[in-house]
């Protein structure tokens, strides 16, 4: 590997996101740091007054940064920070390709149009939402919380579909094909529903599942909650039913992972011991030891994001490195 640039951080990073020319880091101190993804130059450092930040997401255009925190959510642009709403605990913000933004804001989902104006809001549920995801056509949103996942159609204040799971649901993902809705849960179980009916469970995990994501093609699904990174194959008509996952190992426990854009199944994982590994999922076989494409040699990494097809942004307690993967 080769380090292209390093940028210092004042506090432990809670989340990192990269798109286009911008890399954004949310700090546990409540500060947002925006970097030039090509050289690491500090573009902006602001404290929006949201207390601890929980998530950060750079827009597909690479011109705006959505952020969520313990006291609300907002959007940063080059003209400055605009706090759209304060007061509610917000966990996640997700952009659609056309510039719309969905936010898990307290007990409701809030959606903003591409011009930043409020578009619609769901009725408050009984519990605080833990995650939100756009559906395959990016018209509806799925939101997780206590008791399962709820799907909201465009401008629908009430859910049009509900996928029940007892207890706290911590994260949600919708496949690119639109066939599958998946959740990660407090009880160390991953849950998979067909959008047209039927479901299955993925038990045997070690800890609560805090992140579940499909790769861009919708074939592969990865989740935290294990000492290795389980990756499930959704390529068949029945999804992962009756199959075994690829187990991408070598970590104490997986704390973060990121799929490469246009990935063909390439994923980077971060372990609790601080190591970063890169994997080609199609090259692995269920039931056999996995072999990484690269081991980056870190022992203090906490978050990871892709800058481009061969460059990773590795967030450490006191800095961010842009790392080029060598052939």
From TrEMBL:
This is WD40 repeat protein. Coiled coil: none annotated. The keyword Nucleotide-binding does not apply. SMART domains: WD40. SUPFAM superfamilies: WD40 repeat-like (SSF50978). Keywords: Repeat, WD repeat. The keyword Transcription regulation does not apply. Signal peptide: none annotated. It holds the Pfam family WD40.
């Amino acid at each position: 590997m080769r380090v292209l640039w390093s940028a210092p951080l004042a506090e432990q990073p809670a989340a990192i996101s990269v798109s286009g020319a911008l890399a954004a880091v949310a700090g546990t101190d409540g500060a947002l740091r925006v970097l030039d993804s090509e050289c690491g130059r500090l573009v902006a450092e602001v404290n929006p007054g949201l207390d601890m930040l929980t998530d950060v997401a750079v827009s597909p255009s690479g011109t705006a940064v959505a952020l969520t925190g313990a006291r609300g959510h907002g959007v940063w642009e080059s003209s400055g920070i605009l706090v759209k709403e304060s007061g509610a605990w917000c966990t996640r913000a997700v952009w659609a390709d056309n510039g719309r933004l969905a936010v898990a804001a307290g007990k409701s989902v809030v959606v903003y149009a591409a011009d930043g104006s409020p578009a619609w809001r769901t009725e408050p549920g009984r519990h605080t939402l833990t995650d939100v995801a756009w559906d395959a056509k990016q018209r509806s949103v799925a939101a997780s919380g206590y008791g399962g996942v709820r799907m909201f159609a465009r401008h629908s204040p009430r859910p049009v579909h509900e996928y029940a799971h007892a207890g706290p649901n911590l994260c949600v993902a919708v496949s690119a094909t639109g066939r599958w809705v998946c959740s990660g849960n407090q009880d160390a179980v991953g849950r998979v529903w067909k959008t047209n009916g039927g479901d299955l469970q993925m038990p045997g995990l070690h800890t609560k599942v805090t992140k579940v994501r499909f790769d861009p093609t919708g074939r592969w699904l990865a989740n935290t909650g294990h000492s290795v990174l389980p990756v499930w194959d959704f390529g068949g008509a029945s999804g992962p039913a009756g199959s075994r996952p690829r187990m991408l190992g070598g970590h104490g426990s997986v704390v973060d992972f990121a799929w490469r854009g246009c990935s063909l199944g390439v994923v980077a994982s971060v372990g609790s011991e601080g190591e970063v590994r890169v994997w080609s999922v199609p090259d692995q076989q269920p039931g056999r030891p996995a072999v990484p494409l690269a081991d980056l040699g870190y022992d203090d990494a906490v978050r990871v994001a892709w800058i481009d097809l061969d460059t990773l942004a590795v967030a450490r307690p006191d800095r961010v490195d842009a790392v080029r993967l060598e052939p």
